[in-house]
Amino acid sequence: MSSIVTDQGIVHYEAYGRGRPVILLHGWLGSWGYWLQTMEALKNQYRCYALDFWGFGESGKFRKHYDLNDFVSLVDQFMDRLGIEAAPIVGHSMGGTVAISLALAKPNRTRRVIVVGSPIVGNSLHFFLRLAGKPWIASLVWQMPQALRLGIRVFSPY
User: Fold this and answer.
1) At a CB cut-off of 8 Å and minimum separation 6, what does 60 contact?
2) What is the DSSP string of 104-139?
3) Measured on CA atoms in the order 97, 40, 153, 31, is the torsion positive or negative?
4) pLDDT category of residue 137 using cuts at 50, 70 and 90
5) Burial class (CB in 10 A: 0-12, 13-18, 19+), 46
6) What gap in Å lies between CA 102 and CA 134, rounded to an integer?
7) Which is more confidently placed, 145 or 34?
8) What is the distance between the alpha carbons of residues 23 and 42, in angstroms, rounded to a whole number?
């Protein structure tokens, strides 16, 4: 388990493999763990970095609300802290939207962007980010009984 400290708190990440860096960004309600099989497949060619966004997984939950710009800033800070000038950015769902936004805001940081299943039309992500910040949603997700968490892991397609 690795972590860095950013201006919004601790960011958990996992690194795997050897070679050129590639950054993997999870989707809404996800974590770095969604990328485990991908990291295994790429380990001989790339140094894979899969991070947990603020408010998700093992990363800090410093605030109740985060938006797209916060997550773009997180990836930028993450790359700074690890000394990664530029890398391919792979994003799933919300992570794909963050990857595209990073490429638009900081094109010198992205060698290429790979997006899987991302809402990229208009402000389609906004609703989910606002919803993720609602205390009753956070309570349902983060305080589920262990059995329900296990059930989600077993039956999730990811």
Assistant:
1) 8, 9, 10, 11, 54
2) HH-GGGEEEEEEES---STTHHHHHHHHHTSHHHHH
3) negative
4) low
5) buried
6) 25
7) 34
8) 12
Cross-strand bridge partners of residue 114: 90
**pLDDT reported for residue 118:** 78
Domains of the chain are: 2-155 (3.40.50.1820)
Do the beta carbons of residue 86 and residue 109 sit within 8 Å? yes
For 35, how many CA atoms within 13 A lie in the half-sphere containing its CB?
31
Residue 73 neighbours by CB distance under 10 Å:
19
Distance of CA 140 to CAs 107, 111, 143, 148, 154, Å? Answer: 37, 38, 6, 11, 18
**The pLDDT value given to residue 147:** 47
Provide the β-strand partners of residue 154: none
* Crossing angle of helices 124-132 and 94-105, rounded to 10°: 110
Please give the full DSSP string across 34-59, using - where no structure is assigned. GGHHHHHHHTTTEEEEEEPPTTSTTS
Which run of H or of E encompasses 152?
helix 146-155
Structure token digits, residue 39: 């990291």
DSSP state of 100: H
